């Protein structure tokens, strides 16, 4: 559920029909800003909110563009741009050695494992998969920018669904390996 909360603005933006993109961008901006405010109140550090900060900046810019020029030639490319921005933010989180999935994972993981090398490596692997999915999604959605909205929607859904499935399965795999190791050590 933590991933859904993190990506809620992007989901809002994706599910609103394209003819209402101004309102979709404004709503996504609002969801982003609200999410950041909630996390700050909960004591979350800004460094742990890289996707959230990238989201609020992106949706503020898109909302301004959408209301200033609703017929801009960039409109069909906003799904590709959104995946591209996510790819940049996720890739940057890897480059600065703070994978964006690490603080998300910490929300549901006991603090005593946060510094364990397997926990940290798992976040790097998962963030890398998300980054790759965003890059592929960006390319696919740019290529499909002028296709039917159904085809674009499928590409958008896959760009989020596939890394979610990978994340769930990979975490389960790592946890089962850890359980096996703990059982054999007992």
Helix-strand blueprint:
Elements: H1 2-6, H2 8-15, H3 21-41, H4 50-68, H5 78-95, H6 101-106, H7 117-143, H8 149-185
Structure, explained:
With 186 residues, the chain is mostly helical. Helix content is 76%, strand content 0%. The protein is built from eight helices and no strands. Helix 2 runs antiparallel to helix 3, helix 3 runs antiparallel to helix 4 and helix 7 packs antiparallel against helix 8. The two termini are 33 Å apart. The model has no long low-confidence stretch (mean pLDDT 89).
Give the gist of this structure:
With 186 residues, this protein is mainly α.
Low-confidence stretches: none
Strand/helix succession: HHHHHHHH
Head-to-tail CA distance between termini: 33 Å
Number of helical elements: 8
Gyration radius (Cα, Å) is 18 Å
Average pLDDT confidence is 89
Give the percentage of residues in beta strands: under 5%
Principal-axes geometry comes out as globular
Helix content: over 70%
Which structural category fits the helices and strands? mainly alpha
Largest sheet entry: none
The strand count comes to: 0
